[in-house]
Amino acid sequence: MTIAGGYLLLTSLHVVNGFGGGLFGLGGFRVTGGMVMIIFVIGIGVVFYDSNRWYGWALAAGSLLALIVGAIASVRFAFDGMSAFDLIVILILLFGGIGLVLRSVKESPRSSADS
Q: Is 19 among the domain residues?
């Protein structure tokens, strides 16, 4: 049940990337991927010039983190056109199957005859 519900749920999703509008906003200003790459390149240059400088590592790591977070945050999920019945069946299959799996894994209480 879990596998069938998960399969149906995942096949009904479309992943859309909205990366072109900027990674994130800072105030009223949109920060784009190119702006973050400039900071990344400067940080890498400082690291290769003198690897003991902490701000080079901070610039490189911070901008790389901003790129990764911005790329993940720009991903949008959209459902296919489906009826409410289809969605209810998918959710019952998925969560009913998860409930059955958890019930089968749950430790059963031992009786006094087992001891």
A: no
